Amino acid sequence: MLEKVFKLKENNTNLHTELLAGLTTFMTMAYIIVLNPEVIRGIGESLPGKGMPVEGVLIATILSAAAASLLMGFLANYPFALAPGLGLSAYFAIILQMGYSWQVALGAVFISGVVFFILSLARIREMIIDSVPHGIRQAITSGIGLFIALIGLKNAGIIVAGGESTFIALGDLSKGSTLLAMIGLLITGVLVALKVKGGILIGIILTSLIGVLPFFNITQAPSGVVAMPDWSEFGKVFMKLDIMGALNIGFLHIIFTFLFVTMFDTAGTLIGISDKAGFMQNGRLERATPALLSDATGVIISAGFGTPPVTTYMESAVGVAYGGRTGLTAVTVAILFFLSLFFTPLIRVIPQAATAPALVVVGSMMIANITRINWEDFTEALPAFMAIIIMPFTFSIANGIAVAYILYPLFRLFTGRGRSVPILAYILCILFILKFLYVGV
């Protein structure tokens, strides 16, 4: 049955690899289960009457991730996992700070998901992906690699916020969690260098175990094993979205922002990871429409469940690096998310110091695509370079894509090579300029 549904042999993989790839991906992104509710609560606590029930959001986070990943696995047969995006959660929290209710914010998520779905069904998003020039496509992969690595270094405490003059700085390397992450980076790097099957997953497990030692005392014993979810709390957020409130004319820019970020974050992640995994054929992503429809449907579902929109996770690259090549990897992630409903005490045990090295290692793998950019052609080189650095520096894949889409057509046009650029690229260039001028970042 699995062979018939997921075509394992055709994709040069097997059940064992797919299951462990799913487990590896899940372990690197399980942080969202705890972090997503915390981000929203952090804002809500300072706004009386605006906060969301934390336990309800936690359950909604898990169910949204499970449902969306399941769709991706079965409909598109790709090893990409989805969950509420942390950046989108932060923007959701900002909307609450602006004085809007979380019900109206969820309504905006729903509307953006519907528009997202229509654009995917009409294959407009697929056309956008196909219009990405070769050099920019390689830049997206490399930029995501830097972005993943930056997140890993930040989670490890190796890089911290600096002063006004430096923005970022080197962290306290003698700190227990940071030292543990560096040990984990060494372990994971050695295992990958030796081509040990499952080296990334083994690195996460070994680092977690080392964290138990008295010198570190970071990996804490779980408070329990099984904890039943509080469904009454989930009922407080389930289907509480206010669509009519979100249709208010003054809320259109917020709907557009949700649409913009989810659409281009997903497109960038799909391009970046697919190119690295070999899914791109002649510059086109096979089964792009079902993949995009899965993502769009996931956004709609997440609004109904009561959480900020889901997006395709960059951490999927970790599972792909392990060898995941089919939707069985995504389905495995979905099942693990669902099971985590009942094992949240165990999920909280894995420290960020143990998963951070995996992100850095995978980032180093993805940056290799930078050699495929034609650095001799400056009309391609500079937009590609800007895409690469804008992604990590602004913590946004969408911003990196937008800047590249603005620069590339203009450079080609002003150097007499404008006819080599598709019309759609010029249209997107104008839309991105208008977006930055009138909506902002």
What's the total number of strands? Answer: 6
What would you call the shape?
Answer: globular
Helical/strand content category = mainly alpha
- Helical element count? 21
Look at the structure and give the mean pLDDT.
87
* Helical coverage, percent range: 55-70%
Spatial order of strands in the largest sheet: 1-6
Percent range for β-strand residues = under 5%
Distance separating the two termini: 46 Å
Helix-strand topology string: HHHHEHHHHEEHHHHHEEHEHHHHHHH
Given as residue ranges, the uncertain stretches (5+ residues, pLDDT < 50) are none
Report the biggest beta sheet as strand number plus sense, adding barrel if it closes.
Answer: 2 strands, antiparallel
Radius of gyration: 21 Å
Q: Which oligomeric state applies?
A: single chain
Provide an overview of this structure.
There is one protein chain. The protein has helices at residues 2-6, 15-29, 31-44, 54-76, 86-97, 102-121, 124-130, 134-156, 176-193, 199-210, 231-234, 243-246, 252-277, 288-305, 316-322, 327-340, 344-347, 352-366, 378-394, 397-414, 423-438; strands spanning 82-84, 159-161, 168-170, 280-281, 284-285, 310-312. With 441 residues, the protein is mainly α. The protein starts with a helix and ends with a helix. Strand 4 (280-281) and strand 5 form a beta hairpin. The strands form three sheets. Strands 1-6 form a two-stranded antiparallel sheet. The protein is 66% helix and 4% strand. The protein has 21 helices and six strands.
